[in-house]
Design goal:
The protein is α/β, with parallel strands linked by helices. Helices cover 16% and strands 28% of the residues. It is globular. The structure holds coenzyme A.
């Protein structure tokens, strides 16, 4: 227990990651210290109420005794930050003690699962994907890299979610559907049809409000695949 855990991103999502990592540390004593890193000094009152401070900028995640998670909700920003930090560094996987991870589940580095998240069986989750509070990923799903699964999302069986997809709070993906890379699913949407890459869909049944314009940022253009280390089976 010599490593420090850096939570990269000191906003609301980062403060939630602090909650999860402290809960893990109380049980397993994984890290000597848990710190926040961010380039923008924001939310100092909120950090102070958690008894935490900003230890430095994002580059500090490269220090050899630091493991990190990237607690930034937007998939492409998260991807850009992962690119800045680089592959040679150590990403942690943060699984809340009250998340349920079933058998035959493999999680990539940097995955976070918040309280009440459930991942059942024969599921693969790519690197730096976040599964928020009370979200469910059901059997036989493939979830890509840098995906954001917001609170209360229900991904039913045999679903494929592409890299960099953002799923809004409470969205439901019906069984067997495919959501293309970079798509945005609105809060509360019920996805009954496959979703085109880079499109935005809302409502029930979900309909496009914006069609796939393609990758917008250099990080998106470079693709979400460059950070794929070995997927680790869960214990
Ligand atoms: C889908 C979403 C990304 C669209 O955001 P946007 O690109 O800024 O789009 P707009 O707000 O301009 O809305 C476009 C249209 O879709 C409608 N719309 C937006 N979100 C909607 C939703 N979730 N359900 C139904 N309709 C929605 C708007 O009313 C608007 O309709 P109009 O053109 O008839 O006025 C956003 O509304 C959303 O649902 N985000 C999810 C937020 C979330 O869950 N965050 C989780 C944090 S942990």
């Amino acid at each position: 227990m010599t490593a420090r855990l850096a939570i990269v991103g000191a906003g609301g999502h980062g403060r939630e990651a602090m909650m999860v990592s402290r809960r893990i540390n109380r049980l397993y004593n994984n890290w000597a210290d848990i710190i926040f890193l961010d380039d923008v000094p924001a939310g100092s009152d909120e950090l102070a109420r958690l008894g935490a401070t900003l230890a430095g900028g994002i580059e500090m995640a490269r220090e050899p005794d630091i493991e990190h998670v990237i607690a930034i909700g937007d998939p492409s920003t998260r991807m850009a930050v992962a690119t800045r930090i680089g592959d040679a560094t150590r990403s942690s996987t943060l699984i809340d003690p009250d998340a349920r991870i079933g058998p035959d589940v493999m999680l990539g580095d940097g995955v976070m699962a918040y309280p009440g998240a459930i991942i059942t069986t024969n599921v693969r989750v790519g690197v730096h994907t976040h599964v928020n509070c009370a979200a469910v990923i059901s059997h036989d799903c493939r979830v890509g890299d840098f995906v954001s699964v917001s609170p209360g999302v229900m991904i039913n069986g045999n679903v494929e979610i592409g890299d960099g997809v953002f799923l809004g709070t409470g969205a439901i993906i019906l069984p067997g559907r495919t959501v293309g890379q970079g798509a945005v699913i609105g809060a509360g949407a019920v996805v009954c049809d496959d979703v085109e890459p880079w499109s935005t869909v809302v409502g029930s049944p979900a309909r496009p409000v914006r069609n796939g314009a393609g990758p917008a940022t250099p990080a998106e253009q470079s693709g979400f695949r460059q950070h794929r280390p070995q997927l680790l089976p869960t214990p």
